[in-house]
Write a structure and sequence with these properties.
Number of helices: 5
Order of helices and strands: HHHEEHH
Organism: mine drainage metagenome
Number of strands: 2
Subcellular location: Cell membrane
Structural class: mainly alpha
Number of domains: 1
GO molecular function: electron transfer activity; heme binding; metal ion binding
Helix content: 55-70%
CATH class: Mainly Alpha
Strand content: under 5%
Protein name: Cytochrome b561 bacterial/Ni-hydrogenase domain-containing protein
Distance between the termini: 7 Å
Largest sheet: 2 strands, antiparallel
GO biological process, one term: respiratory electron transport chain
Radius of gyration: 18 Å
Amino acid sequence: MATGWKNTTLKYGWLSISLHWIMLLLIVATYTAMDIKSIFPKGSSGREVIAIWHYTFGLSVFCLVWLRLLARLAGQVPAVQPALPALQAQLAKVVHLALYALMIGLPLLGWLTLSARGKPVPFFGAELPALVDKSQDAAKWLKEIHESLATAGYFLIGLHVAAALYHHFVKRDNTLKLMLPWR
């Protein structure tokens, strides 16, 4: 594990590395809960429990992404060695920006959707306040946007993983090694 919490030009700090992998687990758990919810009949207690876990995992991502952004702003971004071509570096920035937008936007849209439905927004036993007034029309289009972005998330996450594996096994640079907890 990295020795300092802060990122440097040579390596990510333990805070960024830990948040990266914890958030990966939370995102996988969020998507898994969303996918297995349909196993249970509508209105069943099993479906409701899975939905609550989906909301809780998603809102956990929303909370942690802000800490992750602060950690990123507090330090440097380690340099990939050998350096990436300019276009590849720009594409990496765009994908990272899109992933951050997803980690903020999806949970926020979920919170807005529940608020517009007039439903409670559960988070570890607490109930978060509604962000908007009840509106079935707004709830419908917020849910559609949320689901469309969640589908796009599969593509973005897959692209991120494929790029990390490409850099590690084909380019043989340090991209993946920089984010591994053991180095």
